[in-house]
Amino acid sequence: MKFRIQFLLSLTIILFMLLSACGQLQSVISPGTATVSIVYGSEKTEWLEPLVKQFNAANNKIKNGKNILIKSTAMGSIESVRGIMDGSLQPTVWSPASSIYIPVANAEWRKTHTDDLVTGTPKDLVLSPVVIAMWRPMAQALGWPGKALGWTDIAQLATSSDGWKAFGHPEWGQFKFGHTHPDYSNSGIVSIIAEAYAGAKKQRGLTEADLQSPDLNQFMSAVESSVIHYGTSTGFFSDRMFSNGPSYLSAAVMYENLIVAQESKRLAGTSSQIPVVAIYPKEGTFWSNHPYVILNAPWVTDEQKEAAEAFQAFLLDKPQQLKALELGFRPSDPSVPLTAPLDTQHGADPAQPKTILEVPSAAVIGGIQNLWKQTKKPVDLVVVMDISGSMGGDKITSARSSLMQFIRKLDDRDRLEIITFSTDITTLSSLSELGGKRQQVLDSVSGIFEGGDTKLFDATLQAYQELQQNGDPKHIRSVVVLTDGRDNSSTSSQADILNKINAAQGEGGNSIKLFTIAFGSDADKTVLQKIADPTGGKEYDSSPTTIQSIYDDIATFF
């Protein structure tokens, strides 16, 4: 008997040591896993992703003993809710950059469901006010910090023929402003709602009737007239502003934490830019409050809700909130004091914002989006398309169909020109308003076929020069070039294009933007990037399967 007990004890110890050594003990005794998928606004990636790893490594469990596994995906706030609506995304938790879009999400959800997608009042993870980032010397020229600044100052600067000359700085040229596209970005929708409030001279109670005011239309038109281009990502705007400097953008709408991050780099000596400060609009602003929304959706189980609540409690615990503070966010826990880097040395004012605007109804938000489409800055666009012999097969088919979809996204007030090139350069449609010729242009594009050599440089230079000559400087001016190969028949060179671009760069952010698409592995990506980068545009790598998404991304600039 004694021998048997010793044998069983030894066997148990050996089994325990083997399982422990292999890291398998927990998985063997665990009854399963409660998986929580989170789709979140990418603005908090640097804070959230390390915490996901930390939480998963701790083997947290729900009451029935199942391990909790967090799976996180960063995605644009409006892009993510569209995925939830069309069923392509089924997360347990949705954490957009702010609560602004929740009324719209609920209204859309109720079209096919009996209850709301978001119920109750979700808890905020971290906070960051939506601000106007402006270079400190420019803010000082406007009277900051003694004078409160806001949207009315932006509107006045935007419509001033003297620009910065009126404030004693003719060398700064015209005022150049930026915010993201409200159909794709949280900061973009927040921007135009704040504009509408300022134009209506209200801070709450904005109605659909207010949106019919001619004065409001004029006010939003004034603000939008100084926009150099739109975009899909707030981070993209901050990167462009802080890398290209004051000649590219005078000011842009972004989150306070991005300004803190930039100033931290400058103070550490890793950025050579001049100081930038946060302007908290005197008319009021919104919080980027990063709500933690456990979805009221049929695919979310009780186990997942319990697991999601456990992760939420972890994120709201003080150590995690202090990590958010280190990255320039304001902790949602009011007991955590606002200390460095949330201070004036880093461009922030912890005593601001003074006024928080009321989130309008879904109907009013939709009305503001429609008003923005009427008042936004139009684009003068030249599309340059390679139709050489190498574009045969799937390439020309997908290039045609994606370009047609792109054309459908443009507004009637936008002006469009289309140039094709192979051995010859052909203008399918000259630069003119799209509204009256849209179907004609679509018909012309549908009839494109391939053949011949590749006059890439000649066609690009022609498009750039024609837009420079015929484009309206008060419009966003852009050239989109698609090619699948290398130039083999131009009389112009890459240097000719770059010389022309460099000669025009005194216009800074208002200069013509070049977007280049390397369509397949044979395209010279290096050359296309060298052409795009100096203009503030972008080079894309593409294929027949991804070209539509590339055109969709370019459309967000307009």
Instruction: Please state the CA-atom Rg, rounded to the nearest Å.
Output: 27 Å
| Proportion of residues in β-strands | 15-25%
Low-confidence stretches: 1-5, 7-30
Strand runs, count: 17
What is the CATH C level class of the largest domain, in words?
Answer: Alpha Beta
Q: What percent of the residues sit in helical stretches (DSSP H or I)?
A: 40-55%
Q: Count of helices?
A: 20
CATH architecture of the largest domain: 3-Layer(aba) Sandwich
Task: Provide structural commentary.
The chain is an alpha/beta fold and 558 residues long. It has three domains: 2-125 and 290-331, 3-Layer(aba) Sandwich (D-Maltodextrin-Binding Protein, domain 2), CATH 3.40.190; 128-289 and 343-374, D-Maltodextrin-Binding Protein, domain 2, CATH 3.40.190; 378-555, 3-Layer(aba) Sandwich (Rossmann fold). The chain has helices at residues 2-21, 25-29, 45-57, 77-86, 102-109, 136-141, 151-159, 186-200, 214-224, 234-244, 256-268, 302-316, 318-326, 362-375, 394-409, 438-446, 456-470, 494-503, 525-532, 547-555, and strands spanning 33-40, 67-74, 93-95, 123-124, 126-135, 177-178, 251-255, 276-279, 287-288, 291-294, 330-331, 379-386, 415-421, 425-433, 476-483, 513-519, 538-542. The strands form three sheets. Strands 5, 6, 7, 8, 9 and 11 form a six-stranded mixed sheet that branches. Strands 14-13-12-15-16-17 form a six-stranded mixed sheet, sandwiched between helices. The termini are far apart. Residues 1-5 and 7-30 have low confidence and may be disordered.
